[in-house]
């Protein structure tokens, strides 16, 4: 009888440990998902600011984000495009803009990137 009770307790303990691992993995996945959503929002905000002309666009720029996005670094890279129109004439003022966000999560470096084309407004 004692052996049966000890065996039941062992099986129950293994099940509880397995369940604890599952809960731990779910919490980690949820945290990564929240960080990913926050990174996407930071990229969208940066893209809207660049498209609106609210920030000056330089060749390359890296900045530490503050507030809600603290702990993240935003890197902006502008590359001029050398495209031609249907007449073979070069089109001036087109840029490929790459925005990337980097952050540390669980001791590992995470990143997210967004690339779009831009034709700055003439002032």
Features:
alpha+beta; four-stranded antiparallel sheet; 6 strands; 1 helix; 123 residues
Taking all residues together, what is the mean pLDDT?
90
Estimated structural class: alpha+beta
Largest sheet: 4 strands, antiparallel
3D shape:
elongated
Total number of strands:
6
**Helical stretch count?**
1
The gyration radius over C-alpha positions equals 25 Å
Structure write-up:
With 123 residues, the chain is α+β, with helices and mostly antiparallel strands. It has one domain (2-118). It is built from 1 helix and 6 strands, in the order αββββββ. It has one helix spanning 2-52; strands at 60-64, 72-80, 83-84, 90-91, 95-105, 108-118. The strands form 2 sheets. Strands 1-2-5-6 form a 4-stranded antiparallel sheet, with helices on one face. It has a two-stranded antiparallel sheet with strand order 3-4. The N and C termini lie far apart (89 Å).
Quick recap:
This protein is α+β, with helices and mostly antiparallel strands and 123 residues long.
